[in-house]
Amino acid sequence: MPKVSIVLPTYNAGKFLRETMETILAQTYEDFEFLIFDSASTDDTLEIIKSFDDTRITLTELPFVCEAAIKRNLGFSQAQGDYIMMMDADDVNVPERLEKQVAFLDEHPDVHVLGSQYITFEDGKEDILVPVPANDGVIKAHFLRATGSGIHSPTVLMRRDFLLKHSIFFRVVRAGEGQMFWNDWMKAGARFANIQEPLVRYRRHEASHVYSRREAFQEAQTEIREELLTLFFPHLTRAEARKLAQMMEKGREHEISELACGVVFAEKVAEFRVAQYGADMNMLVQILAGAHQRAKEKMRRVLGQASSQS
After folding, report:
1. pLDDT for 148-165, tens place per residue?
2. Distance between CA 45 and CA 211 in Å, rounded?
3. pTM of the predicted protein model
4. What is the pLDDT of residue 148?
5. Residue-range definition of the domain harbouring residue 57
6. DSSP state of 167
7. 173 and 130 in contact (C-beta within 8 Å)?
């Protein structure tokens, strides 16, 4: 059996797919199977995949278009490796990615999900190194940002036995499935870590799902944060967690009443001594403090405007 199973969903991915596959097949660590699931692509995606003569590749052609989450779940069900690596069809791996991540997980049996730093790149723009926290508790606290700043899915190598034992699969939702997936790992007792060097180059372009589903992602963030707040702080009611999550929203106008409620509940959380699931309490308070300060400033502006008009 292979040590690693690499799962790659594709759909009309021809523009960048060849480079992505080349960086997978050129890994210095070679003991892997490469499972590709295509959902009725109409461009040259299948032609590109079939042009590679490598026995580690297994292509499954689905006769219908479906979400990447469904294809990833199929890959998890078919994977045979001890570890599973997730990959997008437009990103690039450094040659030593698997070698370094396999060695880390072999040496740290208490870690279930391992990511890394990564570099974002886009035509016409400078490369940007994206730092990520190394420590399990800080990673979990960063989940509350709901922006992928805790663990970045395309950088992950994870334990298959833990996934199967706890039946953890992607939820098929409009947006936010990546963070929901890691929430489910956390609820099952998983520990996280990030290697402190960039092992993936993450491509930004207008056709990526990050751009095409931007509005849906923003809407999903409130639901994700609400769930996390009730997990981290079980003393909060669902209604209190909802108000806190709404206070953290950006890009929309808030009613002053919901800002006021959010401020009160943020101050309530700051009085707690610990958070559940091993999340770092200091980091959680720091994240909430930023939203708390923005809400108070907005309330002062609104009240000031109302006073000047009276």
Report:
1. 789 999 999 999 999 999
2. 21
3. 0.91
4. 75
5. 4-212
6. T
7. no
CB 220 within 8 A of CB 226: no
Which runs of consecutive H residues, i.e. helices, occur in the chain?
14-25, 45-50, 68-78, 97-107, 136-142, 160-165, 177-187, 209-212, 214-232, 238-247, 256-270, 281-309
| 202 phi and psi angles, rounded to 5 deg | -100, 115
pLDDT of 146 reads 80
- Burial class (CB within 10 angstroms; exposed 0-12, middle 13-18, buried 19+) of 109: exposed
Token pair for 263: 């401020």
**Which tokens in the block code for residue 211?**
């751009």
3-state DSSP call for residue 203? strand
The answer to whether 287 and 241 are in contact (CB under 8 A) is no
Helix (H) or strand (E) holding 36: strand 32-39
State whether 156 and 226 are in the same domain. Answer: no
Both 75 and 140 in one domain: the answer is yes
**DSSP class of residue 278?**
G
Same domain as 83, residue 206: yes
- 3-state helix vs strand vs coil in the chain, percent to 5: 50, 15, 35
pLDDT given for residue 264 in this prediction: 82
**Cβ-contact 155, 129 below 8 angstroms:** no
Count of domains forming the chain: 2
